[in-house]
Design brief:
Layout: H1 2-15, H2 19-38, H3 47-59, H4 62-65, H5 70-77, H6 83-118, H7 123-146, H8 153-156, H9 158-169, H10 172-213
Helix pairs in contact: 1-6, 2-3, 2-6, 5-6, 6-7, 6-10, 7-10
Pfam families: DUF1361
Organism: Pegethrix bostrychoides GSE-TBD4-15B
Transmembrane segments: 20-38, 50-67, 79-112, 124-144, 175-201
């Protein structure tokens, strides 16, 4: 029993060595900004709003980026830990982080779609915007995972980011990975969006029923 607890502690320490909490923090930055940008009752597009929008766009790929952190789970299962440490610690923590990060991505885009519809955009425009965001995030995820760029590199080294991105977009293998990532983001987003909206509508229905009873 003591050996199992020691393994679980070791696994937990490895998981929380920094990447999970840090990546989740980066993923929740666009989520928080999306509520301030798109969900307030009175939105004034002042310079601060545009600045926040730029930060939102720059940090948004960090949310779906957590999908690629499945590599850490694969490496963890090969670290020689017992099956119980893997099942009780590694898998739940990794999957929770991945789902949490992608949920932040989905809710952020739902808020963006809400704002666009509020501005009078047609459904086709909202869909096209979502697809464009998926494509841009697919590029961002690739640059982050394989080129190791961060969101703040857009400020500290925009020239390097632009040059590397353009070089990759003219190469077959990076483009193939980006297209595959785009498809995964599109499919996963559609599925989780339906689940999220379904849970939200159920919550509203239950809340309305409670208010009627009161």
């Amino acid at each position: 029993m003591s050996e199992l607890l020691s393994e679980i502690f070791t696994a937990t320490s490895n998981v929380y060595s920094g990447w999970i909490l840090w990546n989740l923090f980066l993923a929740f930055i666009p989520l928080v900004l999306s509520f301030w940008l798109f969900r307030r009752k009175k939105i004034s597009r002042k310079p601060t709003w545009w600045l926040a929008l730029a930060v939102f766009i720059a940090f948004l790929p960090n949310a779906p980026y957590l999908l690629t952190d499945i590599v850490h789970l694969i490496r963890g299962t090969r670290a020689g830990l017992s099956i119980w440490a893997v099942v009780l610690v590694l898998i739940p923590l990794h999957l929770s982080a991945i789902v949490g990060g992608f949920a932040a991505y989905v809710i952020s885009l739902i808020n963006l779609g809400y704002y666009l519809r509020k501005q009078g955009a047609q459904r086709l425009i909202v869909w096209a915007t979502e697809l464009l965001v998926h494509l841009l995030c697919a590029v961002g995820v690739f640059m982050g995972r394989f080129r190791r760029f961060n969101s703040w590199d857009l400020v500290t080294g925009p020239g390097d980011v632009l040059a590397t991105t353009l070089d990759d977009l003219t190469s077959k293998r990076p483009v193939a990975v980006i297209v595959l990532t785009f498809i995964v983001l599109t499919v996963f987003y559609w599925v989780m969006k339906q689940i999220t909206l379904g849970l939200y509508l159920r919550y509203r229905f239950l809340r309305m029923g409670k208010e009627v009873l009161e």
